[in-house]
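Pair request: fold both.
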Amino acid sequence: MNRRLTLSLILVAALSACGRQPESTDPVVRGERDFRGLGCAKCHMIGDTGNEWGPNLTLIGFRKSSDWLDTWLKNPHAWNMRTVMPNFNLNDATRTDLVAFLSAQKGQAWSTYPWRTPEAMAMTPVKRGEFIFNKAGCVACHGQFGGGGYPNNNVAGGLIPSLTKVSEGYSKAELHTKIQNGAFSLLNDPKGEKPKIFMPKWGDQLKQDEIDALVEYLFTLMPHAAAGSKAAKDDF
């Protein structure tokens, strides 16, 4: 057997061995692989990787339920007909793995939360609050500048509330408490399915001064600020 043939056989054997590597039994690992393979990072950021054309997903597992994630990935346009996110027509196994990966994203991909850097700490409370609103993903539910308009099931009007008039309905202390403790929307139909989207207990992620900054920002929002603005974010 000549040297060239021997090397060829060794290469074939090596490639065959690689092909026989068992697939991970961890759905989070498989979901991360699919997240990268599908090019999700072209629009979304997790930690310091990706782009923020769409919502930042570093806290997606904290602010969205696995039930909603599964519904969304099954057919984004069925949930929100105006979404710009494509339907990837995922098979059940891939979708399940992606849900597992996204549900696991609860901030650990950040070595330091972006609003705790020296630069962010030097911002005015209103600017820092706006920064938190966008980076933490509040924008993905309440819309750019708090304008609202994103769907939810079995709630009044079928929409997540706008935040442009919170200063008329809450004191700053009341709004702080609501953000800290989270909230469930009132059911449109008491016998119907529970809303898939609800506000989580942000006190589990944000410090008191960070919630204060968020409140200061929300109190600056007015209907005219959202009127006519084109939302650059999706509702993922």
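--- second member of the pair ---
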Amino acid sequence: MTKTKHDNYTAALSVKQSPDKVFDAVNNVRGWWSEAIEGNTDALGAVFKFHYKDLHRTTHKITEFVPGKKVVWHITESQINFVKDKAEWKGTDVVFEIARKGDRTELRFTHVGLVPAVECYGQCAGAWSFYINESLRDLITKGQGQPNPKE
């Protein structure tokens, strides 16, 4: 099956804050995704690990880092224990694109490779929707996100 760009999970939000403020919030991964992130999350080439209980573990390498504009995480290792293919996310990319639109800043989030054909799509898309549209938005607009607490 051929995948098109439109098959990938995408979310977008628009805020009054500057592109630099949005960029800083995206890179404060502990502030909106998980307080248990291990490693640096704010430099080109940095590697960090995410884990949630015994359900989900991933390793991310920052492969693009353009201040105020774009961040890309390449997932080098994946273990998702609630699906058959535990490595579903391995080799996928998480992309944050930031652009000024009039007097607002738009953040476009795309998980390239998280498509409806993969088993975790429903649960993973639902989780990303919360983390991007609620937790990250809150971190940007209110200064406080809703990350998973340290276990």
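Observation on the second member. Strands lie at 9-15, 38-39, 47-52, 56-66, 70-80, 93-101, 104-112.
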